[in-house]
Design a protein that fits this description.
Distance between the termini of chain B: 41 Å
Strand order of the largest sheet of chain B: 6-7-8-3-9-10
Oligomer: heterodimer
Mean pLDDT of chain A: 83
Helix content of chain A: over 70%
Shape of chain A: elongated
Order of helices and strands of chain A: HHHEHEHHHHHHHHHHHEEHHH
Radius of gyration of chain B: 18 Å
Number of helices of chain A: 18
Radius of gyration of chain A: 30 Å
Structural class of chain A: mainly alpha
Shape of chain B: globular
Mean pLDDT of chain B: 85
Number of domains of chain A: 1
């Protein structure tokens, strides 16, 4: 019976043009969104690779620098696109994919607008995830608001009832038909992505599909239920469009605003001032009259048993710079750690809104699967900082120990060009899918809650139809 | 056979049926007359199982509609005033779909035969139902009843809005259903069509059956005058009761 009703629903979808229009629009959207996304990323990747090569070339070709000068040379490191960034670029547009690294200069900002969680929204560009998370639900609303209410309004529901149709079979068939329409759209979009993709992460793609299939089932169930509870199709359309506006546009912003109010982040200036305040408690490697610097100098002289810097077999400047760097790293760890905790609390707070809005749960999980969410960005920052510290440590050590005293007691540098060209380029390995999902437990729980809830609503709707809701 | 035994149906603050007793034997057409609000639609909704009575029993083919609704629906067909079909499907496709839902898998030829028996002209079988007239849709409704091999049929205002020719045609096919042994209950405002089509006629006023006539009696009496007298009396009584 479900099969008969399901096939009939699809026949109606195709004959009255709804299905054809949806699929045609789906093809167009899939192609446009995948192509624009792929070309944008291709452009960015090209620029990134060119810039990386240029920076590396410049690094290798520079001559005559001391390690200390190299530490100040500074460089941009580029984050590769998330594994499924072409499907869902997530927060990349906000956070960017480039970080400037330089000795003694830790990256202070987690991302540019660090105090504005509300800006971590990205429904302003057409990419595959926008089509799937915002437009596909709208398509289901438009195609399905009348699936049951129009049957009632026309009187067909009564005839179907008399023919022995079980309300549960009816509601399931209608939901399943709507869901397959959404799933077809989903397959078109992901299929188009696969066509344009240069490399494919099959595991993540399958999880991405499963995530959106789940969401579309929830949406289809809600659409069918609202249609069944509404006396007229117009009422159902009004309710469902209102839900779509709330879930797709209003609530994500509301959640972000609420999180910002509940867990306000320090402003950029305040954050910077706090960092600099703490930094000043350390030593100033560039100021020869700094007391802490003089203390360290004395300590090193004592260690080597000499009375002046000129007698040292090492370059004191390098040791001072490394001590300064290590103190700066502690300050950075403290402030960045606090900021990260703050951001995580803010993100977790906003996560509870996923229990009110399945589209938000999907949005956040989609970014996690694509490797383009907040977790990925914070991980990238940490990796970048680790890379910077290691690079600066090596340079400072070379600055300190890459010298010898010649026969005249004059200190000569022994650093060769091979030392610089031997530096490994920054390579970022994205977090694994498991690691990403393990940090998105709230959203997974919310989506399961919606899946179970929406299916339960179908059962309640069927019972209502059974108890006189046919009339 | 369709039987209603002492059926009471109450809505909040209103009793729609007040101990209704009614019987439609197999092979007979019963015309249920009555003014608006008399309880005809409630009676039909009770017989079709869409509503459950406050008390009393409703039997279709001997099956208690309240106790065994699915079995009862299995042998009951319903033809509404404006038969609601899928407009984008042809007559055959509609019949095939509704039959399949009732558990009967008819091929196109069998569907076509059913539509022929219901009086739908052959050239319309493959046309989309959206192009059908009201009378043609009712013929598909009758074909659905035939395909289902129902033992009882309920028709709700079937002649409303039909031209005299279509209405006459409908009467013929309703009579054919009875000839096939089905019990047919027809709720209508059309006194003329009731006299023409039915074996018995009952007059429902204020939730109760106020008069019943056999076919032979119906032919002999001025049904319209009797209808107006009875309705007028009960309306006055009801008004007086509510004034008190």
């Amino acid at each position: 019976m479900i099969r008969t009703l399901f096939l009939n629903e699809w026949r109606a979808l195709l004959r009255d043009g709804r299905g054809a229009v949806v699929l045609a629009v789906g093809v167009v959207l899939a192609l446009i969104s995948s192509w624009t996304s792929a070309s944008t990323h291709a452009r960015q990747d090209f620029a990134r690779n060119a810039a990386t090569d240029a920076a590396r070339g410049a690094w290798d070709e520079r001559t005559g620098d001391s390690p200390h000068s190299r530490a100040h040379y500074g460089d941009y490191v580029f984050r590769p696109s998330g594994p499924l960034a072409k499907l869902d670029s997530g927060l990349e547009a906000v956070t960017g994919r480039v970080i400037y690294t330089e000795g003694h200069r830790q990256n202070s900002a987690v991302h540019k607008p660090q105090q504005e969680a509300a800006s971590l929204l990205r429904y302003d560009r057409l990419e595959p995830s926008t089509v799937l998370q915002l437009l596909a639900p709208l398509v289901l609303v438009l195609a399905g608001f009348g699936v049951v209410s129009s049957e009632r309004e026309s009187g067909r529901l009564k005839l179907l009832w008399l023919q022995g149709v079980q309300p549960m079979a009816l509601i399931m068939a209608k939901t399943f038909a709507l869901w397959t329409l959404g799933a077809a759209l989903c397959l078109l979009v992901v299929g188009a992505h696969l066509v344009f993709a240069e490399e494919i992460d099959l595991g993540r793609t399958v999880v991405f599909l499963a995530l959106h299939f789940t969401t579309l089932w929830v949406v289809a169930a809600v659409v069918a239920a609202v249609s069944a509870w509404s006396r007229r199709p117009g009422t159902a359309a009004t309710i469902l469009l209102s839900c779509w506006v709330l879930g797709g546009i209003v609530m994500p912003r509301l959640a972000a605003m609420a999180a910002t109010v509940a867990e306000p982040l320090p402003g950029r200036d305040a954050f910077q001032a706090a960092m600099e305040g703490d930094r000043e408690q350390g030593m100033d490697g560039h100021n020869p009259r700094d007391q802490r610097r003089m203390d360290l100098e004395q300590q090193v002289l004592d260690e080597y048993g000499v009375s002046s810097r000129s007698e040292l077999p090492v370059n004191l400047g390098g040791l001072i710079m490394q001590a300064d760097e290590e103190y700066g790293a502690q300050v950075w760890d403290k402030h960045f750690g606090e900021l990260e905790e703050h951001l995580q609390r803010q993100y977790s707070f906003a996560g509870f809104f996923s229990f009110l809005n399945p589209l938000q749960a999907t949005d956040r999980l989609s970014m996690a699967v694509a490797g383009t969410g907040l977790t990925s960005h914070l991980d990238f920052l940490r990796e970048t900082e680790d890379f910077r510290r290691e690079m600066v440590r090596k340079l400072n050590e070379e600055d300190a120990f890459g010298v010898h005293l010649d026969a005249n007691g004059k200190r000569r540098r022994t650093t060769t060009q091979d030392f610089y060209t031997g530096f490994e380029a920054f390579h970022y390995e994205p977090l694994s899918l498991g690691a990403q999902l393990s940090r998105a437990k709230t959203d997974i729980a919310a989506l399961i809650f919606w899946l179970v809830g929406a299916t339960a609503i179908l059962g309640m709707t069927a019972r209502r139809l059974h108890r006189g809701g046919v009339l | 056979m369709i039987e209603l035994k002492d059926v009471i149906m109450e809505y909040p603050g209103h009793r729609a049926l007040d101990g209704l007793c009614l019987s439609v034997p197999d092979g007979q057409v019963y015309g249920l007359l009555g003014p608006n609000g008399a309880g005809k639609s409630t009676t039909i909704n009770l017989i079709t199982g869409l509503l459950q009575p406050t008390s009393g029993r409703i039997l279709v083919g001997g099956i208690d509609v309240t106790a065994e609704p699915e079995r009862a629906r299995g042998i009951l067909a319903y033809v509404s005033e404006s038969v609601a079909l899928y407009p984008l499907l042809s007559g055959i496709e509609n019949l095939q779909l509704f039959s399949r839902l009732a558990g009967r898998h008819l091929n196109r030829r069998e569907c076509s035969e059913c539509l022929d028996r219901a009086g739908l002209q052959g050239d319309a079988h493959e046309r989309r139902v959206g192009t059908y007239s009201k009378g043609m849709r009712q013929k598909v409704g009758i074909a659905i009843a035939l395909a289902k091999e129902a033992r009882a049929v309920v028709l709700d205002e079937p002649s409303s809005g039909l031209d005299p020719s279509a209405s006459h045609d409908l009467s013929t096919h309703v009579r054919n259903l009875a000839s096939d042994g089905l019990a047919v209950l027809m709720a209508t405002h059309d006194l003329f069509r009731a006299r023409e089509t039915c074996d018995s006629v009952g007059l429902l006023v204020n939730g109760g059956l106020r008069a019943e006539w056999k076919a032979s009696e119906v032919k002999d009496r001025d049904l319209e005058a009797a209808y107006l007298d009875i309705v007028s009396d009960h309306s006055s009584a009801a008004a007086a009761g509510s004034t008190k």
